[in-house]
Write a structure and sequence with these properties.
Length: about 350
């Protein structure tokens, strides 16, 4: 139940009490629900009983007790407790929220989110030519295959397998032979620096010729690598800003009770659920098809989904930090975790500052 739905439920309870003759008051146009104050409990509370008491000619606690049975019978409300002079405190039922569940899952797994066992027990022997793009692609494939429980070795055509380490163990066995022959880089990418060079070689599909240009270094929206790294750095910056304001991330509803019940349009959840929930599938596909370009492009999708959302995470102006801000920060940090994990698998740094 959202705060605005809870407000409507309280109004309905007041209207029923009036219709049944238990209260003789004018039904208010709206009821404000907010986080419980000192001595309160549950997720939300309202002082509607105190507001109606004078007109009803009854003590606030009596008004609250009249409303309580109607409220506790409503769908989505698990319990209602009257505290203090007559505050109604609500403990809501645990309704399924896929986005909240996803955020909790990512927070619990960290950068291991998306790891699975699709390739468990499989050993791949990656055969590559002596060429920089093939070497970089093979290195990324080794990392990505390991996330799905597989192991990969790298050997050069006509050479012996090189040793690749996974979790402290070396993989040297020959397994399924896979030829990796992406279109070669047209020139040496080293002048771009390690991160931009790897991105330039990994982001295009294997059959596309990579662009080795200074565009990969420009800090602007047209540069996909910049957008991905900037989104991650912004998320980390928001976490530091929240700490200075005295609050931390906590999954929950993205809307504030005060804004919703005041008639402000409900904050719409950003289009982050699909790219975040798709990440495990993309990671499995990248491992199965030996295609790190799929992971790179998906990171761009995550970054483009999270960047517009980040302006709404911290309180603005005189706004006080609320449960909604904690929930938005948790969602932003979940996206940051995916970005950092994906960049790490590509061998690219995920900066805290940019």
């Amino acid at each position: 139940m959202t705060p605005v739905e809870l407000s409507r439920t309280v109004l309905h309870a007041v209207r029923c009490a009036v219709d049944e003759g238990q209260l003789s008051v004018a039904v208010p146009e709206r009821v404000v629900v907010s986080e419980p104050g000192a001595g309160g409990c549950g997720e939300y509370a309202t002082n509607v009983a105190l507001q109606l008491a004078r007109a009803a000619g009854k003590p606030p606690r009596t008004v609250a007790e009249i409303l309580r049975p109607r409220l506790i019978a409503a769908d989505g409300i698990e319990d209602v407790v009257v505290t203090g002079p007559g505050f109604l405190n609500f403990r809501l039922g645990q309704e399924a929220d896929p986005l909240q569940d996803l955020v909790r899952e990512i927070r619990a797994q960290g950068q291991r989110y998306g790891h699975g066992d699709a390739l468990a027990g499989q050993v791949l022997a990656l055969r590559v030519p002596y060429e920089v793009r093939a070497e970089v692609v093979a290195d990324a494939v080794v990392r990505i295959v390991a996330t799905q429980g597989g192991r990969a070795t790298v050997e050069h055509q006509g050479g012996r397998a090189t040793v690749q380490h996974h979790g402290g163990r070396a993989a040297v066995e020959h397994g399924e032979l896979v030829d990796l022959r992406p279109v070669p880089a047209p020139e040496d990418p080293a002048p771009l620096g390690p991160d931009a060079a790897r991105w330039a070689l990994l982001h295009p599909a294997p059959h596309d010729r990579p662009r080795i240009t200074a565009d990969h270094l420009v800090q602007r929206e047209g540069n996909p690598l910049f957008r991905v790294r900037y989104a991650h750095a912004r998320v980390r910056s928001l976490g530091r800003g929240a700490a200075r304001l005295g609050f931390a991330a906590e999954p929950g509803p993205l809307n504030s009770a005060e804004a919703d019940t005041a008639g402000t349009p409900a904050f719409q959840a950003p289009a982050l659920h699909t790219p975040l929930s798709d990440y495990p599938r993309i990671l499995t596909a990248a491992a199965t098809h030996r295609a790190p370009d799929r992971l790179a492009r998906h990171l761009v999708t995550v970054a483009d989904a999270v960047l517009p959302f980040l302006t709404c995470v911290l309180p603005i102006g005189e706004e006080k930090p609320s449960a909604a801000h904690r929930a938005r920060l948790a969602l932003a940090e979940a996206a940051g975790t995916v970005l950092a994990g994906g960049l790490s698998l590509l061998g690219i740094d995920a900066p805290e500052h940019l």
